[in-house]
Amino acid sequence: MKRLTVRKTVRRLAGFLKGTAAPYAGALAFTLLGAGLAMVGPLVFRFVIDTVIDGNAPSLPPFLVPLYEGLGARDYFVANLWLCGLLVVVVNSLSGAVDFFKGWWMAIVSEQTARTLRMELYRHLHDLPYAYHAKAETGDLVQRCTSDVETVRKFLALQLLEIVRCLSLVGFSIGVMAALDPTMALVSIAVTPVVFGTALFYFRKERAAFQAYDEQEGKLSARLQENLTGVRVVKAFAQQAFETAKYREGNETLSALGVKLMTIVGNFWMMSDFLCLLQTAAVTVLGTVRVVDGALSLGTLLAFIAYMDTLLYPLRGLARTLADAGKMQISLSRIEEILDEPAEPDDSHLLEPRICGAVAFENVGFRYDDGKEVLSDVSFSVACGETVAILGPTGSGKSTLVHLLQRLYDPTSGRVLLDGVDLASIRRGHVRRNVGLVLQEAFLFSRSLKENIRLPRPDASEERVYDAARTASVHEDILAFEEGYDTVVGERGVTLSGGQRQRVAMARSIIRECPVVVFDDALSAVDTETDARIRSELAARRSRATTFIISHRISTLAEADRILVLEDGRISESGTHAELIARPGLYRRVWEIQSALGMEDEAAGDGTEGGGAA
Amino acid sequence: MNAFEEKDFSEKLELGIWRRLLSHAKGMRSVFVWLGFYMVLLAALETLGPLLTKYAIDRFVADGNLDGMPVYAAVFFVVTVAQAVCIRFFLVYAGKAEMGMGYRIRQAGFERLQQLPFAYYDRTPVGWIMARMTADSNRLAEIVAWGMLDILWGAASLVASAVAMFVLDWRMALAAMAVLPVLGYASVYFQRRMLKAHREIRKTNSRITGSFNEGIMGARTTKTLLREDRNVEEFAELADGMYRSSVRAAVFSSLYVPLVSVLAACGSAIVLVYGGSRVIGGLLLMGTLYAFISFSARFFDPIRHLARIFAELQAAQAAAERVMNLLDEKPEIVDAPGVREAFEATHGADPAGWPGMVGGIEFRDVTFAYGEGEKVLEHFDLVVPPGQSVALVGETGAGKSTIVNLACRFYEPTSGAILIDGRDYREYPLHWLYSRLGYVLQAPHLFSGTVEENIRYAKPDATRAEVEEAARLVSAHDFILKLEKGYDTEVGEGGDRLSTGEKQLVSFARAVLADPCLFVLDEATSSVDTETEQAIQHAIVRLLSGRTSFVVAHRLSTIRNADRILVISGGRIIEDGTHRELMRRRGHYHDLYVSQFIDESVDGTGPRT
Predict the structure, then answer these.
(1) CA-to-CA distance for B588 and B582, rounded, in angstroms?
(2) Residues of chain B positioned with their CB less than 8 A from the CB of A81
(3) Is B356 an interface residue toward A (CB < 8 Å)?
């Protein structure tokens, strides 16, 4: 994972923060104000102890002196000590109010940013080209869109201002201490660089240990995932004990790495607490000596002890925050990686012609980014309303060929023409609206069956939904569910069989009524009988749609107006069923194998029942 | 069907859940004892801080001399060191507690998952299980170790401060705690509001995750259907909802924390005014006043954190319930008590010495329903003699897979019995049956590792020669040799680097190597290229010969290769016989066959003239 530079991180964050400048500035100002107010408490106590109780002359800032004198100096405060109490409460209420507004505004800033990020990611994922999703890892992407966004949000909500708060507390504390007693101030800040340095040192170590832990956690998850998806195999071969031992090994490593990580954390706290406490001890002891010598007032000493807390602990926290900033940087780069993927370019200037459905491939070639050639020199043309069937071994480029029709990919050489217009000059959306593609792996969304079928046409009437389902031979299946068309499917609902899913996807495509339809092996999991039924239903209703069918079933292929045989990305044969079986080639071989089954059977069945196919 | 949605859990903390969770902490007693020890020690040491300062004020400053200062400094130093060391061990033990809990929860979960029946996997998405075993388990381990710890730590330090204050001066102690009732009331009020708001956030959040998941998995479909814009619109509503409830929750917590601070300040102010006047009156030592100001500030700190921890506990409760549900899931299919013992008494404890399976299988009046659902089989009878291969044909959902899963004891009959070699199979140990079973699935699953490792999975002690022999038997040897590194080729996660057909061949080799007595094939309908198809057919013939076998068949050739064909419809056998017999009967099978046959020799140019 490439980490972003600090500069780029800041620029990106600033970009996301856009539109939240006002609450952000407010929160920033109130952070400084809050840090300032934190300085007041110890001063009030100092005043009470030194002046009111011990009767020393107060060392007040000049602007408060007239007020002090005017009220009646020390005697007044001895008689009205409650005023000091009230002051404490007022100061704290003020800082409470400051904290409230700061919290509120920061919530607006961080939540707004998280919302923007989520929306941008979601939108961008939808805009990314098909090729990206063909090889995307869902789990990893979801992780980035959720946990990584959360990490960034938390950083913005809690840590960004925390840095400011810590720095200002440290600065203010040093300032106030220097004003009270420069000598003591020097003593007080003696260990600060060491505290900060120690913190940074340990967080480096901690980060490395955390990474090791994190990686092991990933490995363990992968192991679990594999076991779960293969659980039937594990059971079928009675390998539970083997699997458990394998998992335990990884689990133990993870736990050991975790303890190692915590030991580093523990060591850090030991060091830093030791330093902070030592500092407090030094201030207490030295201060006491100076108080006894008369060089320092007791109230000032106690104020110094109080400032130890506002100086040292923020410093220690600051190191942690900076370390977390590192985590945020990693998260942000993971998010950036998605957002930096080039989306399908804007094509609003392209054409949107009326489409009848004549398709022509002219010397079409396609290669993937890695240079692997998938299609080369593919040429053929299809008239409106014709049916083209495609046969070819796995990896011969069939799917790629039909994907070109929907502009999911664009050819790397040659042209695809739709009604004589180069596909590259037609808007993608328009192409996809007119070319219906049904994928072999039918994906259904977590919603009701009715909504799933209606996806491409949310305004379709129920009658049309039923009609499409009937054509796809899935109507009866759906009615058999307890909740019929309202049955929720997908991740959070009923699991359909592969064949049922494919038929629902088929219905979803039928309802679109596109002039060109493409079935990418879309009925592979449906039994032959039903397949035939669906095709005849389709033929009955589909008047003039140009149809592309990828299939291995000779019965399906033979019905087409034209059959293309694809081998190694080239068209090796093309023609009608009768033409193709008349000459040697892959088609005839396949046909012979499939029909040989029948022939054998004829021999076996022989005599009376032999005329099954008559 | 919303079993996997985030449930709306009750508002109360349910201690029962946590107690059950802690019952998994067996063997961690010493870790928790040490943790407690360091915690109490640390709380006591921290209380010493203000007391040390008080001593300096009342002894050195008040008396005006520095006698005994070196000893004082030395004591202060020792306390400092002790506290630092304490905190280290405290944290390390907390880490051990967290890691130990996480380890135990995951291990218990994994072992339970290995025992759960197919039925569980049929109704539970893998993603759901993954989330329980990763994010939820981590969360729980964290909350058990740190949340409980924070609560106890807060309590310990509260008690330590309170005790110190009362010992110093009970009147001052009461004054310092005067604001406690108000604080208690406010805490309860805000607590409720905040918990409710957080629950709402969690719900929305899980929907957002679901949305991303679906958005990405369905991205290709979305593109082909041109649904991008509408998906984004729907998502925007979710994101807006998330924004609103998050800000609302943040407002509540932004109110609560300052409120505690203000109340704490009131406590300090009371101490300052009351204590200050008593010091002036000579009734209180200056050092004691200082100690009280320190303690009263410190006293409220844990309270502020307690609110946060309770919110976290509450949030984690949902995770706890889900994880506990997984751990408590009943492995429905287990050996009945005494079965294994009885079997071992007769045949010895070593499974290697157990008797083989002859292979006769009988379904006797079997009725079966998935859970509470509709009956899939009713009063089903079937006798399969040893060595016979049975093809099951019929429409999707007719009950073919159910029959097969029952025969394998992946499910057990709801009523009736299944006999193997004349005995109810529930009288055999599960391990006896499963280790004699070969099962090849519709969608072949391979594990990441080499081809060889995958074939050997069936029989971990097989030699390389045996592995190759198995591969040759199913015609997989040739294609394996053509792979980059032959048998040592990595197949990738889930076998992704092989094609579907290749995966199928490897899974056949795996089954052959296991040399099962009972073989089950749930045949794939997915398309593979014709030549692989032939290799697969060849492999199937090899696998079926001489073993009792069930095939959920789709291909004509497979059907014909079986000794016996059962046509299943609506959970009943409607036809039963050999290919020839069934053709002669001219019933359902005949129709099915003819339609298929016509399909395959379409326009009369077929082999038959």
Answers:
(1) 9
(2) 272-273, 276-277, 280
(3) no
pLDDT tens digits along A137-167: 777 788 888 888 888 888 888 788 888 899 9
Q: Rounded to a whole number, what is the distance in Å from the CA of A298 to chain B's nearest CA?
A: 8
Beta carbons of A298 and B132 less than 8 angstroms apart: no
Q: Which residue among B220, B273, B434 sits closest to A85, beta carbon to beta carbon?
A: B273
Please measure the distance between the N-terminal and C-terminal CA atoms of chain B and give it in whole angstroms: 55
Q: B34 — contact with chain A (CB < 8 Å)?
A: no
Flag if B527 and A524 touch (Cβ within 8 Å).
yes
One-letter amino acid for residue A89 of the chain: V
Do the chains contact at B597 and A138, CB–CB below 8 Å?
Answer: no
CB-defined contacts A:B, below 8 A = 490
Where is A317: in which H helix or E strand?
helix A298-340
- B523: CB partners within 8 A, 6+ apart: B442, B551, B552, B553, B554, B555, B558
pTM of the model: 0.74
Interface of B with A in 138-167 (CB under 8 A): none
Backbone angles phi, psi at B497, to 5 degrees: -80, -5
CA distance B60 to B52: 11
Residue A404 to residues A83, A395, A564, Cα–Cα distance (Å): 82, 16, 16
pLDDT tens digit sequence for A61-106: 778 888 888 877 778 888 888 888 888 889 989 999 999 999 899 9
SS (H, E, C) B520-586: EEECCCCCCCHHHHHHHHHHHHHHHCCCEEEEECCCHHHHHHCCEEEEEECCEEEEEECHHHHHHHC
**Amino acid at position B450, single letter:** T
CB B558 within 8 A of CB B540: yes
Nearest CA in chain B to A85: B269
Whether ipTM > 0.85 holds is no
Cβ burial of A5 (10 Å; 0-12, 13-18, 19+) is: exposed
Say if strands A413-418 and A421-422 run parallel, antiparallel, or are unpaired.
Answer: antiparallel
Which chain A residues are closer than 8 Å to B84 by Cβ? 269-271, 273-274, 277
pLDDT for A276-331, tens place per residue? Answer: 889 989 999 999 999 988 888 888 998 998 898 888 888 777 767 776 777 788 88
Q: How crowded is residue B399: how many other Cβ atoms within 10 Å of its Cβ?
A: 23
pLDDT above 50 for B606: no
Q: Residue B581 and residue B576: Cα distance in Å, rounded?
A: 9
Ordered structural domains, chain B, with CATH: 15-327 (1.20.1560.10), 446-515 (3.40.50.300)
- Give me the sign of the Cα torsion angle B13, B14, B19, B24: negative
Closest partner residue to A581 (CB to CB) among B115, B273, B605 is B605
